[in-house]
Amino acid sequence: MLSVKGLEVYYGAIHALHGVSFDVAQGEIVSLIGANGAGKSTVLKTLSGLLRAKNGEAFFMKHSLRAMEPHSIVQAGLAQVPEGRRVFQQMTVQENLEMGAFTQRDRAAIEQGFEHVFARFPRLKERRRQLAGTLSGGEQQMLAMGRALMSVPKLLMLDEPSMGLSPILVNEIFSIIAEVSASGTTILLVEQNARMALSIAHRAYVLETGRIVMSGDAKELLGDDAIQKAYLGH
Amino acid sequence: MIVLRQLINGLHVGSIYALIALGYTMVYGIVKLINFAHGDIIMVGSYVAMVLMAQAGLPFWAAMAASMALCGILGVTMERVAYKPLRSLPRINSLITAIGVSLLLQNTSQLIFSPNPQPFPTAFKVPPVSIGGLDIGFITLFTIVVSVGLMLALQAFVRATKMGKAMRAVSEDMGAAQLMGINVNTTVSVTFAIGSVLAAIGAVLYSSAYPSIAPTMGSLPGLKAFIAAVLGGIGVLPGAMLGGFIMGVAESLTKGFISSQLADAVVYGILIVVLLVKPSGILGRRTNEKV
Amino acid sequence: MKKKLRSYILNTCAVAALYGLAMLLIGSGAVNNYYLGIMLSAGISIVMAVSLNLTTGLLGQLALGHAGFMGVGAYAAALLSIHIGVDAQYIFPLSLFFGGLVAAIFGLIIGIPALRLGGDYLAIITLGFGEILRVLIINLDFTGGARGLRGIPRVTDFTYVYIVVALVVAVMFALGRSRHGRAILSIREDPVAAEASGIPTTYYKIFAFTLASFFAGVAGGLYAHYIGVLNPKNFGFAKSIEYLVMVVLGGMGSITGAVGAATVLTVLPEALRQFSDYRMLVYSLLLIMMMLFRPTGLLGTREFSLTALADRLLRRKPQAPDFAALAGELPPAALTHRLGEPPAPGAPALLRATNLGIQFGGLKAVSGFDLALEQGEIVGLIGPNGAGKTTVFNLLTNVYLPTAGGIEMEGRNIVGLPTHAITQVGIARTFQNIRLFKNLSVLDNVKIAFHNQMQYTPLEGTLRLPRYWWEEKLADARAYQLLHVFDMEGLADKQARNLPYGQQRKLEIARALAANPKLLLLDEPAAGMNPTETQELLATIRRIRDTFGVAVLLIEHDMSLVMGLCERLVVLDYGQIIATGTPEEIKRDPKVIGAYLGQ
């Protein structure tokens, strides 16, 4: 479904990605793990078209992402929940969700999207008239996810959904990710909390200073000595 | 009674400032650019309307519509050609380009129309309306009604329509807006178009109030409208309206009761006092940088 | 020093030769009055552009009322000349100085409120100032009102203009390459990092703005005594913009660029006089094209250097300064940081935070944070992303003002001190998203943090008095020594922006160390480093502690680094401390395992 080959990205003089390649198949949860600064967010930003790759290719269901504008990428079915949530603080919950459905033309489909999102996040329904800036961290994360789901993506990319959340909320968010996956959306998950990520992912790639240094089955990586040492604190 | 008269005069100019200020504030809100060429759109709008009315003999409404359309196109072209390529560079670059565009428009119109002022045709030959013993010129009434109406309409547009909401989303977080599938370029273009159309309406109303137009005529109302936008809180729509009215009324009262010479000084003085007390403007919000 | 001397002699000769040539041409009649007038105007424009470059190019603050200060100076100088009752030509330098002084006072009055705010406020307030000034001049009697001020003795001649231009340009260069100039540049590059490096940013903003106003006032004095009649219209917004355009076209921050652009933009319109109808059209098109296709201006931030040109012509290789030799010349005591005395028994802790907390809106980002650090300790602050670790750093350095609790450094309350004062008290930090002075050299990045350890005044720096030489030499040697700790001495001349990621992180640590801290706060120093680099960093941090005797508090996710380096760990979750202890204790703490380390 998503195939990335030899992605090279620079920030000015800094070489952020040194030829990153990976694949995501339909229905999978794939996780990119690695330390802060390893280039995980850079991968997602490049896939969403917010950064331009110098070299390499990224194909999403026959689309070549490199030539596409960010809004067409969303339209093609690739959505992202950005790091730090970035909800529109000065807009209401409802308006945030409407923005998520920006690419949808069909009113009925949008209504259905609202129903789905409110069913999954009942708390958002209670607070639909509230300004997003007044929500708690966990609620904002839910809003950010709900907002991305409003575009009915085929592949949902999540950047550090656990950031700044208490353990209970992290568990809640991750079980929602698993549900979203079960309902047919493919997931690419970038996470610094490697244990959580590996526990729900099918496969994972380990990113280190802009390179993929390891990949494989998530359960196997969870048991891998090197991974345990580097990311799991053993 | 004199106070009331000056107050109405103040509302008259104030509502024009407010219309123009909306363009500044919308553009600033969305791309953080002080569009110095915005004032010159007023000049272009006035000349277009003047030529169509005086030389082509078109009625007021048609001339105004044509002027709005042309200014809208001009605003969008300006953004596409001169500002968009510089969006990722430091803001001072687009500021300088804006100054360049402003000079370009002024000098082009000087070549076409000569630097000399020309009369602007009278739009309405209607007697003043008498309200409670106070004679109010029709154009004054018309200006206030049209401006207030447009402001309410714009507010509704931004609150309730899809495009209006997209504009708010882009101005709050351009990157996140892109992730929603919002086409930022289109949104910015629409913003420039709306701002320029409002400026064209402001231009026709302004020129009807001060019926002598010249290639540099846009600078003064442009500057005042910009100050109105800052006064009210730049980037905030109701702020631009409030700022415009405060400016107009303060100017008019100073002219009427103190000295017409000092009107500008009073206006700038108010600006500086407001900025010292509340740097983000009357209705503005202060944003903190993340470290 | 020898190299500098050569450059001074070369430039002085060039300035003198150019003057001689110009005087010869004027004396021989080859330059008639019309051309002389253009030359004088160009000189005045150069002073204006170079001084505005100080505010906008070097300090990085947009000002839209520079002509207003010129106007203040012009009126002040002219009024002095008219009313003093002495023949103007005898007191002309005094008039010029007076013009500059009055403009500087105005600059101070406007700068103090406007520059504290930052952002576009200076632009807006200076714009308002220019307009108010115009209106006031028109309405006041002693300024001649709207008719203008007449009867000013026309004593400005080529020599005066030339001397002022040469002086102003020389002062700019001399100041630019002193600790004060570096402080100004650091504000342009990153005000937050500048403040964290111990630079009192508000002070230097006001200093630079006032100095720029002074020079604009002097230029105004020259203008008044050249043109003979003053009209308030000549100092309006349009004029300010003209000077701004000169600065931007020359390349923001380039002094020679401003000189060049001011000359060209004064001469060009005269040359195009016969096409006067199209002149402004061409000018505006040029402006737009320039910004679209060469957005950094003619020279960017570079400077034209006569010495470099001479070197190239003579095929002399520019030699890199020999830092090792430099270090050898200095007494060894000057080089090493003093190791802290061991604390007296019962002395207060190096740093003590008690019940520290902050709320953003209704959200408690950090609460009930207690921490005591002793000299030379290495302590790790760990926890999930978003737990409030960086917020703790921002509280300790007062980037945020805490809403609860207190912070003491060696028993002294430091809550509410400005960030630069906290750096002086002895807390230096690095940032999670590396904040270097990107367009400055690696060496200057380090030297900026020496600011408070140097004493020479702006005057000593500008006049290049002995204390300047001694302290700069010492600073170079110490910067070199610090860079050597990180194996970066070979990169001293490079622009910081061109370093790879890992080197940028190390440079940031070197810069923090340069501030001579007792406590070093490192925010994710290993982020973006590979395992080998991380291991090297571990050794470096330990060596820094042993050499400089600093305590280190570090935020880090890399467990190999944290567990291998830290003597004590503090675990933060959801803004609260959930555990403290040795790495071994923390590894086994069930709460920590649940929240962060996992099973």
Describe the structure concisely.
Chain A is α/β, with parallel strands linked by helices and 234 residues long. Chain A has helices at residues 40-47, 70-75, 93-100, 107-120, 122-126, 137-149, 167-182, 194-200, 218-223, 225-231, and strands at 2-11, 14-24, 29-33, 55-60, 63-64, 78-81, 155-159, 186-191, 203-208, 211-217. The model of chain A has no long low-confidence stretch (mean pLDDT 91).
Task: Write the SSE topology.
The complex is a heterotrimer of chains A (234), B (291) and C (599).
Chain A: E1 2-11, E2 14-24, E3 29-33, H1 40-47, E4 55-60, E5 63-64, H2 70-75, E6 78-81, H3 93-100, H4 107-120, H5 122-126, H6 137-149, E7 155-159, H7 167-182, E8 186-191, H8 194-200, E9 203-208, E10 211-217, H9 218-223, H10 225-231
Parallel strand pairs in A: 3-8, 3-9, 6-7, 7-8
Antiparallel strand pairs in A: 1-2, 1-4, 4-5, 9-10
Helix pairs in contact in A: 3-6
Chain B: H1 2-31, H2 38-55, H3 60-83, H4 91-113, E1 118-119, E2 129-131, E3 134-136, H5 138-160, H6 162-172, H7 174-179, H8 184-209, E4 212-213, H9 219-232, H10 237-257, H11 263-277
Antiparallel strand pairs in B: 1-4, 2-3
Helix pairs in contact in B: 1-5, 1-8, 1-9, 1-10, 2-3, 2-4, 2-8, 2-9, 3-8, 5-6, 5-8, 6-8, 9-10, 9-11, 10-11
Chain C: H1 2-27, H2 33-58, H3 66-83, H4 88-117, H5 121-139, H6 158-176, H7 179-189, H8 191-196, H9 201-227, H10 237-250, H11 255-271, H12 276-293, H13 306-313, H14 323-329, H15 332-335, E1 351-360, E2 363-373, E3 378-382, H16 389-396, E4 404-409, E5 412-413, H17 419-425, E6 427-429, H18 442-448, H19 458-463, H20 466-485, H21 501-514, E7 519-523, H22 531-548, E8 551-555, H23 559-565, E9 568-573, E10 576-581, H24 583-588, H25 590-597
Parallel strand pairs in C: 3-8, 3-9, 6-7, 7-8
Antiparallel strand pairs in C: 1-2, 1-4, 4-5, 9-10
Helix pairs in contact in C: 2-6, 2-9, 2-10, 2-11, 3-4, 3-5, 3-9, 4-5, 4-9, 6-9, 7-9, 7-18, 10-11, 14-20, 18-21, 20-21, 22-23
